[in-house]
Write a structure and sequence with these properties.
The complex is a heterodimer of chains A (about 325) and B (about 300). Chain A has about 325 residues and is an alpha/beta fold. Helices cover about 35% and strands about 15% of the residues of chain A. Chain A has 11 helices and 10 strands. In chain A, the strands form 2 sheets. Chain A has an 8-stranded parallel barrel, surrounded by 4 helices. The longest helix of chain A is centred in the middle third of the chain and has 18 residues. Chain B folds into 2 domains: about 80 residues, no CATH class; about 140 residues, no CATH class. Helix content of chain B is about 50%, strand content about 10%. Chain B starts with 7 loop residues before the first helix and ends in a 6-residue tail after the last strand. Classes of the chains: A alpha/beta (about 325), B mainly alpha (about 300).
Chain lengths: ~325, ~300
Amino acid sequence: MTAARLGYPNLGLGVGLRTVHFHHILEHQPEVDWFEIISENFMDSQGRPRYVLDQIAERYPIVMHGVSLSIGSTDPLDFDYLTRLKRLADDIQPQWISDHLCWTGVLGLNAHDLLPIPLNEQTLQHVVDRIRIVQDFLERPLIVENPSSYITFASSTISEWDFLSQMAEQADCGLLLDVNNVYVSSANHDFDPVEYVDHVPHRRIVQCHLAGHTNCATHLIDTHDNHVIDPVWELFRRVHAATGGVSALLEWDANIPPFPVVHAEVLKARQYFAAKAPLDRNPSARAANNQASPLAPAHAVPHPLHLVSREVQ
Amino acid sequence: MNKSSYNLEREQRWMQAVIMHPDGVAGGVASAEAKCHLDVPLERIEEVVCRSRQLTSRERLSIYHNAYFARLLECLRSVFPSLARAVGNEAFDELGVGYLQRYPSHSYTLDALGANFDRYLQETRPDRDEATGLSETWPDFLIELATLEWAVNEVFDGPGNERQPGWTAESVAATIASCWPDVQIKPSPSLKVFSFRFPVNDYYTSLRQAASDEDLPAIPDPSPTWLALTRRDYIVRRHALTPAQFILLSAITSGESVGQAILRAATVEEGSLEEFSTKLQDWFRRWTAAGFFVAMESEPFVA
């Protein structure tokens, strides 16, 4: 039987490490359970980002989260990228390495987006084969995240939760369940988010993501620029109860507030841990009418945009 | 579309061609590049991408199209903030869209996205094809500003010497006393020197100091300037140079001995030999303190 969380520890409540918080973290050393880094921001760094990471990794557990593995692409796997990823992992000894169920480009290009794949038997086999290769190369399980998506394909024949379940079992990989992504996609694709979180294999969930999103009235965009809304917290409560507890991390990538605000946001999870009954209305109903999300500014840009800001005098 | 002809590779290449097309989803679907993968007219794209209750297939694909350009333009704007302000947001976005067509990202990291931007400005300068030989000067200024901002980007996260033992003024003095003219100085890996036709460093400074709603300084007239970039304590530092300092540092970074480098610099420095000698000591003292150098080399180093 698969060990809960694939045997990985429950790290508690973590925060995504972002450039604007470097100074605060180094100076105040806040009592954060763990940090997640964007791997690509540090793989080639020979400057301040890597210097800061080395200091933070000495004090806090670190998880490496990537955005460019492109596990669903039909381009060959990029072994130069994987080599650099593994080198960083060897250096900082992360708790685990994660990336997304997506493709980022083909024909050698990178759109720097988490593009969705059609969900069918052919793509399932394709992704499973590639996850196995990556896991062999990295010599550890890959933890795969469900992305937010804005289209579905006519060629899809499998629900996303069934696809994830079969993928995880066949590839023997872990899952990073982003409950905000579940919520966003459920609104965009007219499915029930509760059915989704209830049907993914809970023992393979190693980590959860939490984030805010933007309501564009006709659809939701995963902008990571706001507080987590109540229906997403409620989905998280369900996952927490079903898994017996997993590491949870808050992502805040645009309009980033001061570190204490971000940290306080993820600590809200504690009240959901304690709650035996739902604290909010049924998230399925919320997803259907999108009333809980903040209304959008024009031209909301989906996550990810990850560029380290430069310091110059 | 016939389901039996389904092919993931073709579908991904089609979608990429559509969302990266500068003329929107309609332009992308109609483009030859997209059609060579999936020849689906706009009115039938529901055969590839489903509609939702609220959005058509075209509207849904547009989310990815808009995001592609918005995300990468924002990235370019953050790497070239002064250039973006100098030309204005609208013109910068036009430049950026053109740039992304000619130099789309091939890298796993956004850090490399702007690597060819100054080259692109050179290739597309508005007076490039004029036969008269006379040309506007402002494109040259913008190209040099892009060169400076990209160099700042490279120095910030490129190799440096913060984790190596520093090269001190004492070690310089000791070397001066012994074999100074014959040795080579190994520069910090972060040190870059530039010769510009325009005062781009002053302009860069004035833009950084100006509030976002302040009037921009005018694009300056040509006036040669020289600059060194280096990194100390993980922050990029800019050092204005004189012509003699530029020649001296250029010679040192290209691997010439200190004696050869000084001789080159002396050709452009006015004043007596004694004055020049005093200046040299002052320059090396300041540059050493600023972390320009990491070691003396008795054997030639590869520049």
